[in-house]
Amino acid sequence: xxxxxxxxxxxxxxxxxxxxxxxxxxxxxxxxxxxxxxxxxxxxxxxxxxxxxxxxxxxxxxxxxxxxxxxxxxxxxxxxxxxxxxxxxxxxxxxxxxxxxxxxxxxxxxxxxxxxxxxxxxxxxxxxxxxxxxxxxxxxxxxxxxxxxxxxxxxxxxxxxxxxxxxxxxxxxxxxxxxxxxxxxxxxxxxxxxxxxxxxxxxxxxxxxxxxxxxxxxxxxxxxxxxxxxxxxxxxxxxxxxxxxxxxxxxxxxxxxxxxxxxxxxxxxxxxxxxxxxxxxxxxxxxxxxxxxxxxxxxxxxxxxxxxxxxxxxxxxxxxxxxxxxxxxxxxxxxxxxxxxxxxxxxxxxxxxxxxxxxxxxxxxxxxxxxxxxxxxxxxxxxxxxxxxxxxxxxxxxxxxxxxxxxxxxxxxxxxxxxx
Length: 420
Fold this sequence. Notes:
Strand content: 5-15%
Shape: globular
């Protein structure tokens, strides 16, 4: 369900300590009125009607096809509403920095940009840097003999984005447009960084750039993220996100750190960065990486299993180490095990290999233990089936008998003719 502030996040923790916390741009929360940890929201966008429309939700029975997807009707050179919105967000953020340049107390500003989200439309000058004919085709394509998981193949019958692309020329245009949108995004970030420089804030401000999901651009025959398949997938191309941190004089420039970090780690890190390390609540899953930001903090004890990610759209959980990934789907499977050190593209599922059963048991035990420690059982929906177009409210006993998921499912329209 869309975040509504009932579970306190990093914003609320900072607010309690008197830190100014504001946002500019996309949040994708329930609505602007929910107490989500911001003193003020500028130009916010939130999920549709507080629910959103999860096209790839679990269905029982799964319909054969949703019909033709319109996501790729618009592609290539142009200017979308999202492009214009991102420019507006970046300019507003630059203005905000000027207004708060002389603040005596610390502040945190969250800037939410949409690109490179669909539609794959971008101004021509950005696309010029990525000639479509020069774009490499994605790996693991079914057209070249890659055998998809049976559940990915089943999803493709329902919602085959790759087939909608049509031909390789349009696939290359899609990839070029995605790269161009990323460069467009870089320019908007540059607008914000230039404002920091202009107001003398650069050396006093920690900048963290990250994203909320990865993106398959034809990888595994998928276009989209974790909900581009049913059951939901945990491919690295879906779940890995950028994490770039910058502050001259505090963060080593040009350094690459290969620690396994998670967004869970941001809350304790942000609190430590503003001198509030003692305010981190006990029992939270994240661990501070403030030591990487020039903050005097002890290094954590060695532990390879530091990232555990679960997908909010359904009962899919993953544990990933540097070398291995285990994916467990409650209650029906299928489960997966990948040796990432030798199979970084996740092509060989080792879940049924006899030699790997001890490893699977160990990883499953770590996964269960982590969630037992960190998940509130009152709102744990891991063993509830996902149905309809999305989650309506809290799952588990906290729902107090109310349905957690929409019973109906419709696509693109609420008209009877759109129902399938």
